[in-house]
């Protein structure tokens, strides 16, 4: 009998057997390893997770090399051995679909995918403060509508400037479009929801942007009290949630509202909710992510995983002896409790805070994930 006939073809394992094995794989890192074996295994991971991956936290590497960063897994509760070529002393102003964004010293926006080692330079932002140390804080958040490497119609929306205004562009445009909403400002988050571009400000104003005209449509007024931070997130059943964080005592608490569109008036009603079911939400400087804990039982249901993304224009607010969210906290909506999941070393406390990033579900074997 030839030796080759004794060898197993892992790509031809029966689908039900493959799914039963994958069901036992709890670690996010191990799922990446699993998906990297071959394309059928990568497809099985995608189908099991319904296209969603658990975010990992981008943090300074173990060896204290200021040119690389590593990934922290909440499911494994450990730092991976992977090294990504990202300087950890530069603030990341956005994380969408595996892409990170940075403001360059020349005031251009750099999109960088560390998993594909791909860079895209976007046009220069005007009206930016011409001080190197201040530039990286002039963009509060950048979000992408789709993967710019796969979709030439990708839309980029930026919350920008001293008053957190909105600007946007389509990939390939030579300049940014500045959105005029009158006296309304202090936008905190942007979400692409069912074909609409939605933005929320500090006091609950919800607007929908017409990207053809640049005109905003106000769906909800700014009639809520000031919040420390505000997020929009779509959960697994398609509902749209408004998250508002308050820090009257550290580390604070969240209120959650379901946003319901009234088809007759075209306005949005806010309905406060105390339970988000089997959803776990990941918020911060990233594009907000929701996962179903029925697919990822190692995550806490009805909870919010959060890390710091608040800045006051030129540097992060830090109160002496108070460990602002340079690690990972969770807030449980049922009992209002908060827990610390990851605490970095004290030497990293003065650095820009870490950010959630979505690693690819399937990666080629020759990528840096072979280092896991």
From TrEMBL:
Residue ranges occupied by any KIB1-4 beta-propeller domain in the UniProt entry: 71-329
Pfam families from the UniProt entry: Beta-prop_KIB1-4
InterPro entries listed in its UniProt record: F-box-like_dom_sf (IPR036047), F-box_BR-signaling (IPR050942), KIB1-4_b-propeller (IPR005174)
Protein name stated in the entry: KIB1-4 beta-propeller domain-containing protein
């Amino acid at each position: 009998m030839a030796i080759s006939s004794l060898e197993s073809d892992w790509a031809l394992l029966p689908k039900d057997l493959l799914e039963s094995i994958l069901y036992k794989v709890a670690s996010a890192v191990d799922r990446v390893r699993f998906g990297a074996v071959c394309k059928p295994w990568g497809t099985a991971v995608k189908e099991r997770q319904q296209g969603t991956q658990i975010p990992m936290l981008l943090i300074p590497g173990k060896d204290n090399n200021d040119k690389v960063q590593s990934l922290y897994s909440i499911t494994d509760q450990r730092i991976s051995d992977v090294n990504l070529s990202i300087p950890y002393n530069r603030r990341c102003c956005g994380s969408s679909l595996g892409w990170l964004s940075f403001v360059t010293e020349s005031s251009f926006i750099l999109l960088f995918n560390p998993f594909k080692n791909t860079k895209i330079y976007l046009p220069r932002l005007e009206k930016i403060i011409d001080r190197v140390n201040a530039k990286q804080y002039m963009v509060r958040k950048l979000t992408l509508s789709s993967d710019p490497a796969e979709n030439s119609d990708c839309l980029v929306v930026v919350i920008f400037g001293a008053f957190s205004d909105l600007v946007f562009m389509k990939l390939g445009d030579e300049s940014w479009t500045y959105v005029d909403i009158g006296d309304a400002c202090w936008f905190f988050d942007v979400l692409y929801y069912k074909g609409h571009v939605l933005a929320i400000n500090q006091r609950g104003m919800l607007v929908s942007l017409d990207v053809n005209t640049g005109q905003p449509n106000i769906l909800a007024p700014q009639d809520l009290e000031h919040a420390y931070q505000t997020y929009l997130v779509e959960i697994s059943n398609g509902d749209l949630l408004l998250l508002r964080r308050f820090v009257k005592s550290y580390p604070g608490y969240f209120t959650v509202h379901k946003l319901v569109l009234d088809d007759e008036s075209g306005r949005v009603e806010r309905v406060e909710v105390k339970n988000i079911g089997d959803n776990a939400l990941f918020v911060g400087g990233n594009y907000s992510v929701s996962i179903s804990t029925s697919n990822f039982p190692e995550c806490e249901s009805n909870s919010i995983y959060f890390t710091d993304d608040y800045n006051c224009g030129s540097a992060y607010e830090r109160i002496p002896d108070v460990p602002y969210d340079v690690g990972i906290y969770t807030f449980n909506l049922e009992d209002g409790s908060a827990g610390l999941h990851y605490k970095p070393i004290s030497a990293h406390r003065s650095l820009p805070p870490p950010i959630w990033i979505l690693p690819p579900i399937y990666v080629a074997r020759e990528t840096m994930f072979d280092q896991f």
